[in-house]
Amino acid sequence: MTTRRDFLAASAATAVAATPILRAAPAAHLARADHDLILRGGTVFDGGGGEGRELDVGITAGRIAEVAPRITGRGASEIDVRGLAVAPGFVDIHSHADGSLQEDPRAESVIRQGITTIVCGADGSSRAVGSPARPFGAYFDSLDRLRPACNVAAMVGLGSVRGAVVGEDDRPATPDELRTMVAMVERALAEGACGASSGLEYTPGAFASRDELIALCRPLVPLGRVYATHMRNEDDRLLQAIEESIAVAEGARCGLQVSHLKTQGPRNWGVLDTVFARLEGAKARGLDVAFDRYPYLAYATGLTSLFPVWSRDGGTAAFFARLDDPTAAARIRAETLAKIELLGGWDNVQVTSVRAVEDRDAEGARLGQYAARSGTDPYERTVALLRRSEGNVGMVGFAMSEANLERILAHPMGMVCTDGGGFAIDGPTRRGSPHPRGIGSFPRVLGRYVRERGALTLGDAVAKMSAVPAARVRLGDRGRIAVGQAGDVVVFDAATVADVATFEQPFQYPAGIRVVVVNGTVALRDGERAREGTGRALRVG
To answer: What pTM did the predictor assign?
Structure first.
């Protein structure tokens, strides 16, 4: 059996020689090809977490049809992948890449990481909500017509459900409104949503009570689907947020997925042991609990998240009205500056996107430096940016610990996500200065945290990127290299795979991802993309 050490050494030695070659079978043999595609001689990591084995993989009619040390039959196309790793197509359990699919269905930043399936509808926000006006069935049908490069599964966003029924106000739902929301969640799940998500730092999701969340999560239970939560707090009140998340899942009796687990701000880095203990304790009591994380020390969100939730009650217009009220404005400023102190200063906040054309020079800039260039106060400059863009300004905040990140990625409950959007180095989705997690997360785990730092093994990393998240959202035919599984496969060079994008220059594709196959069709080979997408909507039944 080939060991990981032998495999990495062989990969390094054959980095040039192992360039994949796509061979079409001779014309005389096309009619009797045994498989549509055969990947020959790669080291297969099947998603189960173990070491790799040198195997051939045959794909027919979009499914893995044969896995063997040597497939004796022919493929209509064959790719020599000796010296390279062959893994199940990666499943991004927390993605926002669906937001740009209609503009650019190539999903370049997804496919070029080896991601073949994205799970969207995260952080309480989904494009469908289960209402007659926004049904999941129609949303999934639109994806099938679009034929994007990747597969798309979706959760129902409980914040979007609340917004559709209650609106943007900070008040309890009435009994009738709650019944309507529960019915919407039930319909979304019946139409194929793979779970439900909340975003409790965002409005209007932040205005949901614990009892409301429990009621909305109960429909998940008979279907075995999971509740994913962007918790109410990820810094000074992290432990309280963990306890609330557990209480919601235990109250509803559903599974819990903690989204992008982090300990934000240096003064909170030391609580990770307690966080693990709380989650492990819940698991010991019988709760089905897990979490995910992207491999960067900065998070990305809207710039309004620096401002207290209460100030955003009622929507953007109400927020700006409070900024014009001297009494409210003084309190808002004080609480916002406390948040900035937690992050370590204004230069730990980078602007990623603005709507106002006149402020495009702010994209990619650190707020402290940006304000200093114009001789203005950073807080006032921030408010001005928000006003001119009607609240639509993106940001990155640098506030996390590398040691904690490694422990989160390696933890048995952990899995990998991007929490990123979809974009490309060309075309309509090249805009702003996005967080590099959207284009580099999965290669970064394989390069930095497996190969360079040894935080987890290659087999474990592959499992956390494929079989584990696929099972979490009930995609039973994805995430493994096994007969009968969907033909979603990624081939990469373990000796060279790496993220290339940076916070300063995000529009750079990763290295080392050599071949990506989606539903049996080659979507990427040595940097060359297929002309048409073969992804589809994944409805969970």
So the answer is: 0.92
Backbone angles phi, psi at 148, to 5 degrees: -70, 170
Which among 181, 132, 182, 129 has a CA at the least distance from the CA of 154? 129
Amino acid at 131: S
To which residue do tokens 């927390």 refer?
94
Longest dimension (CA), the chain: 83
Burial (Cβ within 10 Å: 0-12, 13-18, ≥19) of residue 351: buried
The domains found in the chain, sorted by start residue, are 4-85+525-529 (2.30.40), 90-297+400-475 (3.20.20.140), 302-398 (no CATH)
Whole-number Å distance between alpha carbons of 370 and 247 = 42
Give the tens place of pLDDT for each residue, 19-77: 344 444 444 444 589 999 999 999 999 999 999 999 999 999 999 999 999 999 999 99
Dihedral Cα 517, 520, 523, 525, nearest 10 deg: 60
Q: Would you tell me the crossing angle of helices 326-343 and 316-324 to the nearest 10 degrees? A: 110
Q: Which amino acid is at 336?
A: T
**DSSP for 138-153?**
HHHHHHHHH--SSEEE
**Closest by Cα among 231, 267, 277 to 413:** 277
Nearest to 463 by CA among 421, 540, 409: 409
